[in-house]
Design goal:
The longest helix is centred in the N-terminal third of the chain and has 30 residues. With about 325 residues, this protein is an all-alpha fold. About 70% of the residues lie in helices and about 0% in strands. α2 crosses α12 and α3 packs antiparallel against α12. The chain is globular, with a radius of gyration of 21 Å. It has one domain: Amino acid/polyamine transporter I, CATH 1.20.1740. The chain has 15 helices and no strands.
Length: about 325
């Protein structure tokens, strides 16, 4: 094989973007959003966040096209703002990557607790041992060669997207417009709280602006990893494909996130979803597909977290 043919291709780069972002957040975001906003506010927030991250993806695309010799987001910072900015960017990104191991390990082990209660709540001694072994296995895989790791990551991406696709199909066929629009802007809920009909512990979600702001805080976290292709640009087979992979990855993520977070509001009211245990998608799908839905989503969460963990490693 020629030297030119080596490296990560377009599909692998897209896998880096999608798998880095789709970890545990997509499975919990429905319940998190339902606790702070009505369906209408969620849609408005997605429009704002989508435009913002589209601007970021296009910026990375532009930088990759104009400065293909630079290797990763840290060098973009150094080229634009000097060595100190590059240093802070590089070390800050490194810190966020390895500190994320804790979140990945806890989520994966707590989900295993669905099948094996000894792993609940995700921070017991067996959890520490199994998670450490898994982390070293990922490290060994990456040390052997980032190209083989990216290929495995692309396969994991397909598995994650396919499992989420099954959830979306169920959500589409079970969608009830009447449930979705019953309290579209949260006015009924807020009025009930104000009248004291929701109980002493209930809190009003506030007006549209407050709801949208609370949504945006949650939504920002699920896009951590959007820079995955840019970080791996030095290993790309074709530097021009880095920006394209980021844009394609963002489009895929928006379709998945909006579908998974909004469609369940047409199956259960957002007040019902807000009361579900964490992560909410597991229990929503368990209701949609009794007997196997919960186990299916649990496995999807484990695969999703493993893929994101591999991308960050």
């Amino acid at each position: 094989m020629s030297e030119k043919a080596k490296g990560i291709g377009l599909f692998g780069l897209i896998g880096m973007v999608v798998s880095s972002c789709i970890g545990s957040g997509v499975f919990a975001i429905t319940g998190q959003l339902a606790g702070v906003a009505s369906p209408g506010a969620v849609l408005v927030a997605w429009a704002v966040v989508g435009i913002g991250f589209a601007a970021l993806a296009l910026s990375l695309n532009n930088l990759g096209a104009k400065k293909p010799e630079l290797k990763g987001i840290f060098q973009y910072a150094e080229e634009g703002f000097g060595p100190l900015a590059g240093f802070v960017s590089g070390w800050g990104y490194w810190l966020s990557a390895w500190l994320g191991n804790i979140a990945f390990a806890t989520m994966m082990m707590s989900t295993l607790g669905y099948f094996f209660p000894t792993f609940l709540p995700g921070n017991t001694l067996p959890c520490v041992i199994v998670a450490s072994l898994f982390m070293w296995a990922l490290t060994f895989l990456v040390i052997r060669g980032v190209e083989s790791a990216s290929f495995l990551n692309a396969i994991v991406m397909v598995a994650k997207v396919a499992s989420l696709g099954i959830f979306l199909v169920f959500a589409i066929f079970m969608f009830n417009a009447g449930i979705f629009t019953a309290d579209f802007w949260g006015n009924v809920y807020n009025n009930a709280v104000a009248a004291g009909e929701m109980g002493a512990d209930a809190a009003s979600m506030g007006g549209l602006f407050e709801q949208v702001m609370n949504c945006m805080i949650i939504m920002m976290w699920v896009f951590i990893g959007i820079e995955g292709a840019a970080v791996m640009s030095s290993r790309a087979r074709n530097k021009q494909e880095v920006g394209k992979a980021t844009v394609i990855g963002l489009i895929c993520l928006l379709l998945i996130y909006i579908g998974c977070s909004v469609l369940p509001y047409g199956y259960m009211s957002y007040t019902e979803i807000a009361q579900l245990d964490y992560p909410a998608m597991l229990y929503v799908f368990d209701s949609m597909a009794p007997g196997w839905g919960g186990a299916f989503i649990s496995i999807a969460i484990i695969v999703g977290v493993a893929g994101a963990w591999l991308s960050f490693t």
